[in-house]
Amino acid sequence: MVTPASSGPTPAQRVREAVEPAVTAAGLHLEDVAVAPAGRRTVVRVVLDLDEDAVGSLDLDTVGEVSRTISAALDAADPVRGEYVLEVSSPGTDRPLTELRHFRRARTRLVRLALHDGSTLTGRLVEAEPDRYVLDPTPDGVAERTAVEPARVARGRVEVELNRLGADGTDVPGTDVHDDEEGPA
To answer: Could you read off the pLDDT of 25-54 as tens digits, one per residue?
Structure first.
């Protein structure tokens, strides 16, 4: 059986190579790149996130600033043939938690973990380490601080909290559903 010769990097790989230095220089993480045809144009989707040690959400102003830098990098490198539309966004709250960095980014958030044994745990994620995820109690979740080995977790997701009150009775920044859904810039 003859295997076809590689025709070089894919369009998404070329875009990733072109924009990653700009994203890194902005102190952000390049979460994903997708390139898809859309009629006579191409849609280039770039998903950015804060560093895994950061707590909080990526704000629209930062997404807008980095979008301009990414656009300039794409213009200079020309990794996409023809016309394209650039969409830059953050993962949002609907991103499944599949990697340690996703769990680390979800610290302080209410999360639901589906375990391989069929049970679920809900609590406020306070630690995310390679050997354990630690959940603090919540009114409708775990009753006491609970540590879970990552190997026991089948799926994880952030639960949307429309508002969360801090100890002083005021809203906690980054807990309004709109804070996490920046959408395309």
So the answer is: 999 999 999 999 999 999 999 999 998 888
- Residue 177 reports pLDDT greater than 70: no
Q: Among 37, 38, 91, 46, which residue's Cα sits nearest to residue 68?
A: 46
Bridge partners (DSSP) of residue 28 are 50
48, 133, 138: which is closest to 86 by C-alpha?
A: 48
Q: Give the C-alpha separation, 66 to 26, whole Å.
A: 7
Residue 133: CATH number of its domain:
2.30.30.100
The total number of structural domains that make up the chain: 2
Q: Higher confidence at residue 1 or residue 146?
A: 146
pTM equals 0.74
Q: What is the DSSP letter of 165?
A: B
| Residues of the domain holding 84 | 11-89
Considering 89, 108, 126, which residue would you say is the last residue of a domain? 89
